[in-house]
Design goal:
Helices cover about 30% and strands about 25% of the residues. The protein is an alpha+beta fold.
């Protein structure tokens, strides 16, 4: 088996070189790193304080040879804002030790492993600091000298933990603390200084959303609702709720929705949030399964256009959930009341087909009927009598006709019931 170790570096991530923010630190960085690594391997170990290890031999068949796989890992890590050293070895502990000294070293054969380990200074061999100092005082400065030293003498002087560490470096079995993705995402980003507007929050917001997307990809799930909390000093947190009609996990879409919701708090950078922001926290509790859309074999959609679900969510984020709705049929014979607005998130109801074919209805129904202005028309169908509404004060009695105007347009017109000489009233146009 081959194992890769991702060891967090003390230096800044390239994306942080300008000082916009500092990289993730502490246990949050390790949890985020493990969640991200879980998308590339089903065996991720988190037993090492400053690193995670993942089994990659099976992954190479999916993601290509190690040089290409390594470039992909580094690009993803840079997007997440985590600086890491990466090393590969035939066992996890050896990869951990090598990553602390070398960045980019890959030992894929057992025969080369001991040679590479022997050159590592004792001070960088992941030993207890007091043990490393004592060994150096004895003249044992590299791991190769420890491998060659009498085991009994080392065991009596430094205890069995040192011998166990040396054995595991050379391939002895080791029980790893396996990572299991949680059912809740909760990540906090602390700002270097207080922020008054929403525009400066976009950079850390992108970091948080990218971390959420990496977490979702690792657990092969999506998110339908998450909360962005703006933390203030001496003021209650401001909550920005981002809800979607279906589970999503695309980082660009999630960021666009979160940014639109955030900007609705004010007018970009010109209007301040309720109080200076000290930190951002993103919490996602609703993590349903993600079902990707199944596009056609030959996609006909232009490159710059958006699929309907993405466009729908952007509109809801910018305009508000109540501004995006769908139309549904309503059980009423009166044309003006035969439809109604419903929430776009509501599941459409199935209607039983009519026993007899329904009369034609126009695709464009006018808001209010108007007199038909045409140089003449021919009646194609009708009359269809509609009498309804006596119970609610909206009584109507009309005879509807399908006509063709002198300009060649097809219209839906009516006259009051029993009045064939009344001027026709236009109520809709057919496509």
């Amino acid at each position: 088996m081959l194992w890769a170790c991702l060891c967090r570096s003390a230096g800044p991530c390239p994306a942080d070189a300008a000082g916009e923010s500092r990289p993730w630190v502490g246990s949050a960085a390790r949890e985020l790193l493990a969640a991200w690594a879980y998308r590339y391997s089903s065996q991720v170990g988190i037993g090492y304080d400053d690193a995670v290890v993942l089994e990659i031999e099976a992954s190479l068949r999916l993601f290509g040879p190690w040089p290409a796989f390594e470039r992909r890992l580094r690009a993803d890590l840079e997007a997440l804002g985590i600086a890491c050293r990466i090393a590969v070895a035939p066992n996890p502990r050896a990869a951990w030790v090598l990553a602390g000294v070398h960045d980019g070293l890959a030992i894929v054969h057992e025969a080369r492993l001991e040679t590479a380990l022997s050159r590592i200074p004792v001070a960088h061999a992941r030993l207890e600091p007091k043990q490393a100092q004592a060994l150096q005082a004895m003249g044992l400065r590299r791991l190769g000298q420890l491998f060659a030293a009498p085991r009994d003498a080392l065991g009596k002087r430094f205890g069995p933990a040192l011998l166990q560490h040396l054995d595991r470096l050379r391939g002895a079995p080791e029980a790893l603390q396996a990572y299991a993705p949680p059912d809740r995402f909760d990540l906090r980003f602390e700002l270097e200084w207080d922020v008054d507007g929403t525009q400066p929050l976009l950079f850390p917001l992108r970091r948080l959303v990218n971390a959420l997307a990496a977490f979702l990809a690792g657990r092969d799930g999506g998110v339908q609702r998450f909360v962005l909390r703006l933390e203030h000093d001496g003021h209650p947190d401001t909550e920005v709720v981002v809800g979607m009609l279906a589970a999503e996990r695309d980082p660009a879409l999630l960021f666009e929705l979160a940014r639109s919701r955030l900007e609705r708090l004010g007018d970009g950078a010109r209007r301040a949030v309720p109080a200076p922001v000290r930190g951002l926290r993103l919490v996602a509790d609703e993590l349903p399964p993600f079902v990707p859309a199944a596009p056609a074999l030959f996609e006909a959609r232009p490159a710059q256009s958006l699929p309907w679900p993405a466009l729908r969510e952007r509109l809801r984020a910018r305009l508000g959930g109540e501004a995006v709705y769908r139309l549904a049929a309503h059980d009423d014979h009166r044309p003006e009341r035969a439809w109604r607005r419903v929430d776009a998130a509501a599941a459409p109801t199935r209607r039983a087909p009519p026993a007899t074919p329904a009369a034609p209805r126009p695709a464009w129904l006018l808001h209010q009927p108007v007199p038909l202005r045409s140089r003449g028309f021919a009646t194609l169908a009708g009359p269809e009598r509609i009498e309804s509404g006596w119970w609610d004060g909206g009584d109507l009695r009309r005879d509807y006709y399908l006509v063709e105007t002198g300009e060649g347009q097809r219209a839906w017109v009516f006259r009051p019931t029993g009045d064939a000489d009344a001027p026709p009233m236009l109520h809709g146009w057919f496509a």
